[in-house]
Structure formats: C-alpha cells, structure tokens
Amino acid sequence: MTNYVDEVLKNLKEKNAYEPEFLQAAEEVLDSIKPVVERHPEYKKLALLERVTEPERIVSFRVPWVNDNGEVVVNRGYRVQFNSLLGPYKGGLRFHPSVNQSIMKFLAFEQIFKNALTGLPIGGGKGGSDFDPKGKSDEEVMRFCQSFMTELQRHIGQDCDVPAGDIGVGAREIGFLFGQYKRIKNNYEAGVLTGKGLDYGGSLARKEATGYGLIYFMREMLAANGKNLNGKTVIISGSGNVAIYACEKAVEYGAKVVAMSDSNGVIYDEEGIKLDTIKKLKEVDRKRIKEYLNFHPQAKYIETVNKEESPIYEIKADIVLPCATQNEINLNSAKKLVANGVIAVGEGANMPSTKEAVEYFLENKVLFAPAKAANAGGVATSALEMSQNSMRYFWTFDEVNEKLDNIMTNIFKACEDAAGEYGLGTNYVAGANIAAFRKIAKAMKSQGII
C-alpha cells in the first residue's frame, strides 16, 4: 500500500506543480502516515488520500480599495475551505505580500490536522490577501478590510466557516472586518469571526493562546524526555503575538530568552530580553525591533542580510522557538543549531522548518515539536471563543487558560501515543500526523463519498 501513497504524491506534484508550499505540507503528511495506510487497504478503494488532499472549495476574488491619496488599489483575496468533516471550516486570515494560492492551500491543509488534534469540532480552512498593512494608515486598513469583507461575507458564517487572525491581521483588522460583516448581514453573528476585541465577544486569553500553548506543549515534550525549561537559554524568532507570549510563558517556567527578531534583524540581549520593551515597540508603537537598543544599549542588533536565512539561528541556545513564518529554518540553519547544542525545537509559526531541516533535527536526536501540534493553542482558544459566543457567556482568563493547558497536554499525549504505537520513538512529527489523520479518516469513512 506504500505504492498508493507514492501514486497520490506523484499525481499531486503533477496537478500542483507551481504550488511548492502546498506540496511540501502534503508530502510531509503523506510520508508520515504510510504505516497507517499499510494497515487499511480500503483507503485506496475509497480514494481517501485523494479526497483529503483536494480542497472542498477555493474562493479567489479581487479587492478594490482607495488609498489616502485617492488612488484605487486592487489586491487579491482568497479563502480555501479545505475540509469540513469535523466541523465548520476554521482558520485565520493572513494579510501579507507573499500570499498566493500555494501558501493559502498549505496553511488550510495544515489546519485540517491541527484542528483535528485539538479534539474540538472544527474543520480546516485558511484565507487572506496580498495586501500589506505595514505602513498603511488606520483609514486605509479600514477601507481595505471593508472591501475584503464585502466579498468574503458571501462565503462564511458561524456554522459554515469561521475566520480568525494570522500574520498582518490583528485586533484592528478583525474589528474592521467584523463591523463590515455585521453591517451587511444586519445580524449580530458574534461567532463568525474569532480573535475579536473583549468588548464585543472576544475571549480572554485568546491573544496569549498560541504562544502559551506552544510552551505548554514544550513543557510536556521535555518532561516526557526527562528535561524541563528551567535554566534553559531560548531564542525566539519573530516578535509578533506568538513570539511575545511564548517568551512571556517561557520566562515564567524559568527559561532565559536571549533573542527575538523581526523581518529586518535580530536583537540579542545576553541578560535576557526585556519583554515590556518588545510589547511597547510591537503592540503599541508598531516600530521595528531595532528600536530596542534605544532602551537597552547593552543589547546587540544583527541586521538580516539574507532574507532566506535569519542570523538568529547562529546564536547558541538550548531551545529554539521559530515563531515568524514558513521555511525560516533551512538545512544550513539547522546544522548551525545542532552544532551549537540545541536540545529542542518548538514550531510556533506554521511550517517554519524546511523538510530537510526537520529530517536533520530528527536524525540528530533533537526533540522536535511540529507546528500542527505545538501551535494549535490559538485555534483551540478560537474554538473556545466560538463556544462562549454560542452560550452568550464568557469564561474568566484562568478558566480559558486551564482549558488551553489541558488541550495542549492532550495533544502531546496523542502525538506521543501515536508515535509509540507505530514504533517511531520520539518522532512527534509523525505522531501528530498519524493521530490527526486517523480521526479524519474515520469521519471520512462515516460520512460517505463527499
């Protein structure tokens, strides 16, 4: 039956030849689940792999808007509704110049498995636009979001498809999007978007959830292998929402975070990153991380010269948390990290390590927490936000955080158990894929040929 997986991969590569990110994500999953497919010859007759790798629907649309100079600008919008077997499509919106169909499909495909691991009733989807909110005025962002939602609203709903934020889509953008949806629908459908402000249906702990969840997963993975975070040196790529709150929670567990970054460069503070300064620069002032030096001149700033290889991965650390974007750790960076003695890597971003980098980490016995498991805390808490909206009720921060901790603990246990069942040791990449796939396969068989 391995031939079946290989056949599907071959056909995928032929049909999606110009979508490298999607093919990378699909190949990782399909390679991992070969042992499961071997046990279930009926999967081929049901074309189960062909169906799980083909989106149920892709929506692409133009987004015209007017900038502050009175000029009309046209961007492209997407929503990939990949799989609704377990619940309504669920996944973020990304506003970034790099957005294209391949990236949207890879993110939506990953989301299927990530959402399955949470144990919550949510399917997989993703969307976004090649619009860049950086450098835009609030008025420009509002006009873009209103135009984007004018089309997107036709395709979403709290029982159909529930977007959230991602890169470039924070509280400001979600607010503008929700306002336009409500205006068009003439209906206060709070559950249609998650990541909302606390004043209008958002959930406590949602902002912190992905970063906190990453550390909860890392805590469990390290503990299962006789290690912990206390006293460990940590580097975290990125300085957005995920990176900031991963830093906050890692420090609570006794780690010392010495480096963070943005797309322009890296701040290295041997004394430990001062997170209050990062929060002010990024969450309040929307400035570049280089400004950290104005407050803490003892730190060092390393400019990113090669956009394909961040200098942060040249810094010696026990634990590495890539929380910026896809494929930021290539094979060369992985070799540097291993040479510097890294013991664990936790993916806070979506697919931040190339296939070659992941294989190198596993070959060198580095504990590796894959994104679809380790960064599932954000979408899990989004699903908790949906539950609160349905109840017209809210939970306290501690209640949500406790639920998040339990979900992440259970996700690790599912990955560990699946890897153990198939004799894969500490290969939690395969464990995550197998645990999620088995759940999806059961639902697919139960619901017929759809």
Structure description:
- The two termini are 23 Å apart.
- Among the domains are: 56-188, 3-Layer(aba) Sandwich (Rossmann fold), CATH 3.40.50.10860; 207-374, Rossmann fold (3-Layer(aba) Sandwich), CATH 3.40.50.720.
- The protein has helices spanning 2-15, 20-32, 34-39, 42-45, 48-52, 101-118, 138-152, 171-185, 206-224, 241-252, 275-284, 292-295, 331-339, 355-363, 371-374, 377-391, 397-421, 428-447, and strands at residues 57-66, 72-83, 89-95, 123-129, 161-164, 233-237, 256-261, 265-268, 300-303, 319-322, 344-346, 367-369.
- It contains 18 helices and twelve strands.
- It is an alpha/beta fold and 450 residues long.
- The strands form two sheets. A seven-stranded mixed β-sheet has the order 9-8-7-6-10-11-12, with helices on both faces. A five-stranded mixed β-sheet has the order 1-2-4-3-5, with helices on both faces.
- The mean pLDDT is 96.
- 48% of the residues lie in helices and 15% in strands.
- Helix 2 crosses helix 18, helix 9 packs parallel to helix 17 and helix 13 (331-339) runs parallel beside helix 14 (355-363).
- 52% of the residues are buried.
